[in-house]
Amino acid sequence: MSSKGVSPVIASIILIAVTLAIAGMFSLWATSFVQTRQTQFEEQIGCIDAMEIDRRAPSLTFDNSTLRVIVINKGDDPLTTLKVIITYPTLGVRNYEPFPAVTLGPGEGKSLTISDNPEKPIRVRFFSSNCANLGEVEIP
What we know:
alpha+beta; Immunoglobulin-like; 4-stranded antiparallel sheet; 1 helix; 8 strands; elongated
């Protein structure tokens, strides 16, 4: 009795079909991956230089544990849910979310007040829910 195996032609066809199927799945994944990254990149491009912080007094003041800053949205999209990271000389870095309801429209400026600072900050960084890093200012 002889046992019959798969013909070399059939084995080659199956091997090529499996390879093409794997290549097709990889191609679909790669296309989706690149499109997602491109969308994220385009969103971040819109955030570059989106916020301007007026660094001149009286636009930027600190007195009696209260920091006042005027910020301007110089981008094309609204900035929502502003967050702040404040660096203090002895206390280090603290995160604040004092402006959850504040939205800055394109070209709009607002005076923001951050109260209850335990000491004079040395640096303030602003973020928004739709833009990662908006602006940074060192306190004179």
